[in-house]
Design brief:
By secondary structure, the protein is α/β, with parallel strands linked by helices. It has two domains: 3-131 and 261-321, Periplasmic binding protein-like II (D-Maltodextrin-Binding Protein, domain 2), CATH 3.40.190; 134-257 and 326-350, 3-Layer(aba) Sandwich (D-Maltodextrin-Binding Protein, domain 2), CATH 3.40.190. It contains 15 helices and ten strands. The protein has helices at 3-22, 45-53, 65-74, 86-94, 147-151, 173-183, 193-206, 218-223, 234-243, 272-282, 285-295, 302-307, 310-313, 322-325, 336-350, and strands at 31-37, 56-62, 81-82, 129-141, 167-170, 210-214, 229-233, 247-250, 256-265, 328-329. The strands form two sheets. Strands 1, 2, 3, 4, 7, 8, 9 and 10 form an eight-stranded mixed sheet that branches. A two-stranded parallel ribbon has the order 5-6. Helix 2 (45-53) links the parallel strand 1 (31-37) and strand 2 (56-62). It is globular and about 60 Å long. The two termini are 38 Å apart.
């Protein structure tokens, strides 16, 4: 489904939520605050969850892990369920911000493939239930990019001066530096300050070519042909292509980030059991199928994979095989020293 249709559905869901909250006799209902990435759910399942459980959902979105972290760390808002990426999950665990899950309340977690559990960000599989997985990719418009330039399937396309003013870049430091580190042949989890400084220099070289640093805005810019090239996530590339058939994408030959986003419950949630009921609901096979069909990302839900259209699971970029994934790397939480350096370097890059 295209982003514009999703937006209309969101408006309808939010309106339904407001009416429900205003209705008589509902004052005793629990309301769960769910905080998720934009464009990252089949919104029709939210009223379905409320009908099934009697639990309301206040659903809001963020554009990056960093935006989500800043909001919850500051105490500016209270949430129950969040769906961060691997390295941010590790950070939240280290800072004692997540609650261990009671998997007796999440029996549908048994459908999640073992290859997505017990990873470095949650080695004991205590805090998370995987929601999606994927890789970063380079997205380009075939009507605007020379086929010979795209054929190389390289990160160099993002630095090609021929496309000055038509290139978008990640508006978050972890992903942006990940692209630059990969381009230079360094680990995405480097603890070498000199390698981070070299990556910062690459991003500074790219900056004059960049039309905008974006996250969710990539959908409109790439669908409309306002921009020609961007790095982003494989699942979103599929949705953008649905809105513009001239869109194509590839996993860069230099390597990419392999990520797992997972459902978690915040430690200070007053509704832990209800939050676990929501996670269990999202792991129902029919719900997982709807989610995968709508958002475009690869699902770790093995029963859902069996029920998806082979045209979806046969996409070798979104559902990349082991040979391709061997050239990817999972983001880990960086040391405090490198995190501070990353923040300082990013501030320097983004300043006018």
């Amino acid at each position: 489904m295209k982003k514009k249709i999703l937006s209309l559905v969101l408006a309808a869901v939010l309106a339904l939520s407001v009416l429900s909250m205003a209705g008589c006799g509902n004052s005793g209902k629990v309301t769960l605050n769910v905080y998720n990435w934009g464009e990252y759910i089949d919104l029709s399942v939210l009223p379905e969850f409320e009908k099934e459980t009697g639990i309301r959902v206040n659903y809001t979105t963020y554009a990056s892990n960093e935006e989500m972290y800043a909001k919850i760390a500051s105490g500016a808002a209270s949430y129950d369920v969040v769906i961060p990426s691997d390295y941010m999950i590790s950070k939240l665990i280290q800072e004692d911000m997540l609650a261990p899950l009671n998997f007796d309340n999440i029996p549908n977690a048994r459908y999640i493939g073992e290859q997505y559990k017990g990873l470095d960000f949650d080695p004991e599989n205590q805090y998370t239930v995987p929601y999606t997985w994927g890789t970063t990719v380079v997205i380009y418009n075939k009507s605007m990019v020379d086929p010979a330039d795209a054929a190389a399937q390289s990160l160099d396309l993002l630095w090609n001066e021929k496309y000055s003013g038509q290139i978008l870049m990640f508006d978050n430091p972890r992903d942006a530096f990940g692209v630059a580190l990969s381009k230079l042949g360094y680990s995405l989890n480097s603890e070498n300050p000199d390698e981070w400084k070299a990556a910062a220099e690459e991003l500074k070289k790219q900056k004059p070519l960049v039309q905008a640093y974006v996250m969710d805005q990539i959908f409109d810019k790439m669908e409309s042909g306002e921009a020609a090239i961007a790095p982003y996530y494989a699942g979103d590339a599929l949705i953008i292509q649905d809105g513009n058939p001239d869109i194509d994408y590839y996993i860069p030959k230099e390597g990419a980030n392999f990520f797992v986003d997972a459902m978690c419950v915040l430690k200070d949630s007053p509704h832990k059991a209800e939050a676990e009921a929501f996670i269990n609901f999202m792991c129902k096979t029919d719900v997982a199928v709807k989610t995968a069909e709508i958002i475009g990302y690869a699902t770790p839900h093995l029963e859902a994979v069996k029920q998806l259209d082979p045209e979806i699971t046969g996409n070798t970029v979104v559902y990349a095989d082991e040979a391709v994934l061997a050239n990817t790397e999972v983001f880990l939480n960086l040391s405090p020293e490198i995190n501070r350096l990353q923040s300082d370097l990013w501030t320097d890059i983004k300043k006018d």
